[in-house]
Each structure stands twice: as structure tokens, then as C-alpha cells.
Amino acid sequence: MVFHxxxxxFSTSKTNQDRNTLPAILIFFNFSVFHLKTPYYSIHxxxxxxxGRKNAIRLTAGNVPVVDELRIQDTPPGTIGEYWLNLVxxxxxxxxxxxxxxxxxxxxxxxxxxxxxxxxNELNGIALIxxxxxxxxxxxxxxxxxGVLVLNVPGLLLEKRQFNDGxxxxxxxxxxxxxxxxxxxxxxxxQKILPEFEYLIDLHTASFGRVNSWYIRAxxxxxxxxxMARLQNPEILLHNKANDGTFRGAASAMGIEAITLELRDxxxxxQNVIAExxxxxxxxxxxxxxxxxxxxxxxxPTLLCESSYWIYTDEGGIxxxxxxxxxxxxxxxxxxxxxxxxxxxxxxxxxxEYGVVIGKGIDPISPTGxxxxxxxxxxxxx
Length: 382
What we know:
By secondary structure, this protein is an alpha+beta fold. The chain folds into 3 domains: about 1-55, no CATH class; about 55-285, Aminopeptidase, CATH 3.40.630; about 305-380, CATH 2.40.50.100. The protein has 6 helices and 24 strands. It has helices at about 125-135, 155-160, 180-195, 225-230, 245-255, 270-285; strands at about 1-5, 25-30, 40-50, 60, 65, 80-90, 95-105, 105-115, 140-150, 200-205, 210, 215-220, 235-240, 255-265, 305, 305-310, 315-320, 330, 335-340, 345-350, 355-360, 365, 370-375, 380. A 12-stranded mixed beta sheet has the order 4-5-6-7-9-8-10-14-12-13-15-24, sandwiched between helices. Strands 11, 16, 18, 21 and 23 form a 5-stranded antiparallel beta sheet that branches. A 4-stranded antiparallel beta sheet has the order 20-19-17-22, with no helix packed on it. Helix 1 packs across helix 6 (about 270-285). The longest helix has 17 residues, at about 270-285. The protein starts with a strand and ends with a strand.
């Protein structure tokens, strides 16, 4: 076993040298001591002690830095940095890290953050962020773009919407610093990620057993937020104030202009809606003067709904929902039927008022209280 003390030999990117002034200890442990057949089996364990620095940086496999908070300044101007954000530890003391990327322009400017997968089965946002960063040239960017690829890492690994204790992280923000595991987790997400943002685009889809239109939740009474939302070219805009325990709500409370993109369906990469959303996000970057380019607006008008609500069953059984997503329903129109297991009609449901179908349930096995459809109220074309 060899111990070596000296300067650290890493940085947050290939061009960043300002971290090479802090003490480090590198321990090499060679498995050949145990007479393995090949000398290539070795572990390099890097233990870094960074005195006087709040944002200690460590390395993981692939030389991706692990940081304790998101800081734009850790990425040199004109580069893209990839990082793991250390958030909490699991029951055997292993860290749970959040993957994120920072594209920092050569010139200062706005900071736009994109976040994905706060629900672990909502995947379209991950591919969207990857594609956006693949095409970003930070040397011509003014300001910074941050992409947090997965907010709910435990949920993603379990392939489920909720956090690993069953909580919905997007209903308990901003959490608590001294609460249970999910409350602490969302609290640290809010405290370690959001303070750097000026604008937030939070990426979602429907959950299991449901499908969505391509729509946006935004406070349409806030001028900057409403403009961000319109630039996305969605099928539907839903006026929705962010005051309901969501991540977007926590951002808004911090003075961040924030919108939620609902990118259709869960647990799948849907390239069409990903491509459409990329156009809208680039529109925002053009509009903010972060990139040079022409804003693209669709010829098809966007539908604005003043509010919305879900309609639920009051009896369980085999559910069939008739209207398609994006269609209009008239008051009194038949929208769903519930049959028993023998196929006999048990209950029918009609639209309580005129509206547009924003989303719907598609799981035929529906207990009492199952979701029928998400109805947008007072729709009008912009």
C-alpha cells in the first residue's frame, strides 16, 4: 500500500486550474498484492481535504467531479461541465448523487435551469436535456444553461413516480431541513440547486396509467413567465399559479420565473414531443439574448385554459374513457363507462361542463376514485 501526499491533480474541467492549490491524499491499493492474475485490477481511492472551501470537489468513476452545491463559477467560461451533486446518503452510508451539466458562456448573462425526472418514471425531459447540451456551443453563449438530468434518483432506479419512501417530491417542496428522508431530500434540492437560477423550466410527463397532451403549466398573469410559456408552442397552455408544494412553486417563491412542461407520456422517450420542446427552449434562449437565432412559432394556435380539474370515478371496475386527448367535450356528453368483471355496465360518466381533454386515464383496472380525465376549463385560442 502506497501513500502519497501532494497537490491535487484534478479540476472541474480540462481548462480549470484554480483548484490545484489545495492539499490532497491519494491512496493506491493494488489488488496484485492478493496475487490476482492481472496487475490491472487496482483501486485508486482519492481522498480530498479542501480546507476553507464550502464546495469540496471529489472525483467519481470517469473523472466526473462530485460537488456539494451547484455553482456556476465552478465551470470555466466557454466550457461545459459535467458534475454529480452530493445530496444525501442511503442506509449503508453510500452517497446519492444528482447528475447535472453546466454550459457557461464566455460572456455573462441570464441563467436558465432545466430540471427533469422529479418523478422517477417521467423520462422525456432527460433526453431533452441531453439533446440540448449536445448542440450547445458555450463559446457563443451569453449567460449559462444548467441541466439537472434527474432530480429523483431513487425513484428513477425503482422506475416509479414516487421517492423511495412513497412520497411525491413534487407535493412537499420546499421540504424541511430536519424532516423525514423525502422532506430533507427535496429541501436540499431546493437549497443546493435553485439559488443559481433566474429562470426555471421544469420537465414532466404524465404518470403510469395516464396520457397527456403536450401542455404547459404557468402563471399567465406574470408577464415574463407567460412569455416563456408562449414561446414553447405547446398544444395547450394552462393558467396555474405555482403555490401547491411543487418544485416550480418553490422556485417562484424565490423570485425565479418558472414554468412546467408536460411532455406527454411516462416511461418512454417520445422523439416528436422532445423535438418540439427543444424548439421552444431554444426560443427562450434566443428571446433572452443568450444565443443568436430566429424565434420559431407554429402556425397552429395554442389553446389557453383558465383552469382545470380531474374527474374521478366513484365506483370501481373496468374503466373505458372515450374522448381523445386534446378533444373538446360538451356538457352532458358521455365521457366514460365502468363495467364489472363480467362486462355488465355498472356506471356511466358525463362531462360536467364544456372543456378540452388535457389528459386522461388509460388503465382499465380502476378502483373507486380512479382518474377519468383532466378537463381544461374555458378554453380559448390565442
